[in-house]
Design brief:
Number of helices: 11
CATH class of the largest domain: Mainly Beta
Oligomer: single chain
Helix content: 10-25%
Strand content: 15-25%
CATH topology of the largest domain: PUA domain-like
Shape: globular
Amino acid sequence: MSSNSTVQFHDLNLCPDPAAPKIVPKIEPKLEFMDESFPPAPPPPMSTPPPQSPPATSDVFSEFSRISELFRSAFAQRPEENGYCSVLPDSDPDYLALVPVPEPESHLSNAIAPCTRKYEQRSAELVRVTDMKSEDQRYYRELIRKTRSLYDSLRVFAVVGDEKHKNVDNGLFLNKRTRADLKAAALMRGQGLWLNRDKRIVGDIPGVMIGDVFYFRMELCVLGLHGQPQAGIDYVPASHSSNGEPIATSVIVSGGYEDDEDSGDVVIYTGHGGQDKNGKQVAHQKLECGNLALERSMNYGIEVRVIRGLKFGGGVSGKIYVYDGLYRIVETWFDVGKSGFGIFKFKLVRIENQVEMGSNVIKFAYNLRIKPLDVRPKGYVTLDLSKNKESFPVFFFNDIDEDHDPLRFEYLTTTIFPSYVSTYGNKTGITGCKCVGACLNDCFCAMKNGGEFAYDMHGILVRGKPLIFECGPNCSCPPGCQNRVSQKGLKNRFEVFRSRETGWGVRSLDVIQAGSFICEYAGVVLTREQVQIFTMNGDSLIYPSRFADRWTEWGDLSKVFSDYVRPEYPAVPPLDFAMDVSRMRNLACYVSHSSCPNVMVQLVLYDHNNVSFPHLMLFALENIPPMRELSLDYGVSDEYMGKLAICI
């Protein structure tokens, strides 16, 4: 990080009263609605809270502000990169800057073995990261993206491992829910790959954007966004705090508790304690643990991160978590709840001048899907750029200017290959699999992939490969086969839009899970001889060989397993062809370029067997929230437009 970017929090209670009684915290977390990560805690016993000494609020807060300003310029320049880690200079050797610990050796054969390592406790030291430069922001965004990609890859790897060992009854897999999310988190923790463990960050986590979506609570723990796998309030406990007082850093708002109120910018948050396993209040709450931490954060004016848990039918867990930004606790009081028991309430107000809440954007996108013209009466050029060719309509939106250029092109749903490409398999005698029911790992197409399928049972890509063979029109398996993912067209709703920053762009109206298929990059394939002619005519050509090999990142488990080897089979010769998109194209041609992309290119074959002419299929590198622009690493880009440098 740059200089002046880390502000350290010293003791907030600068003048503690030695005669004041100490509070011994009890672990009574506020369980989150619908959270099944861990069994619920029993209701706490009734007791009278010990008396609290009234704090000298104005003196402490002014001193806190003075110290914050004092430490604003106390830290060294941006840490130098050391492989995957970054550390501050030797002048402060105990300060590890928001980074994972280098991993010890592990083995792929022990992938899902329980970890017996004794973990270090989280640090109680509070810091705030401020005034990061643009290069720092890119660095930490890439660090977050790679950490999330590793977590998702491990989770999918664990899912596939469980699928292989499921019992089979009359040819049907028994429906048993796995906890691959816990296994992935445990593996990363065992290798010291959890982020932000050495410092407790107050405020935004570097690299995490407002609106980021998470499918599992454990992913929040891995990133340090919310360090409690079960409790709704994350805080430094009094027993670990240097001043003997707990301080809250983040809360999860699920809306599943009877006394909670959530209007977006203002949240009335019910404290923890006294609930049964169904979230019903059955006992009085006490001012301790997370409740006391929220009260202390209010007293010192410390902001908290708010993550919202939303019901989501399209997710594997039935719920998603959205980071909605920073809030201040402005008021707290003791009240009688709807069940007749005493509860603590906290009023949280969102800090101004932040980007739109991710939860609001998700609701906005949902309304767009069902009634676009009611939500945005102006700006839509057409509600289906594909003209009914795709399984879902592709919206075309431009509220900036009168440019309707995408309407000039014929829409393609798949790439058009030369006729001799499709006859290649017939000449060599290669056909499809002969599976009558569901394909298993011994089917012909699986053997072409190295003896395994590229996708899990939910259609999520297990790991990137040089090439993937899917079952195709020459196969006997049914259309619902696990090995038919990218050939079925769009699975989400998309919108091509005019952007002031990137010219044209593409965004989804749905939440896209990491590893999911997005669409094909479609055009008309040209041979080398045809390329010379088309170039002379001034047509727009795209060279697939120039795309960056981002597929190598998805499923890369080398940071966890020392014997991991990147897939090299099926092998693909250099792609010696171009695609003409000057007259026919699809929505993928409007995806913007980025050096930190959220989409990758995966080569796939299904309708022919000529490995020299694969389909260019796009998959999500991370969870992509609605209305966030899709981006690809084209390898060669136009610096001004941030787009692919289409050769003319």
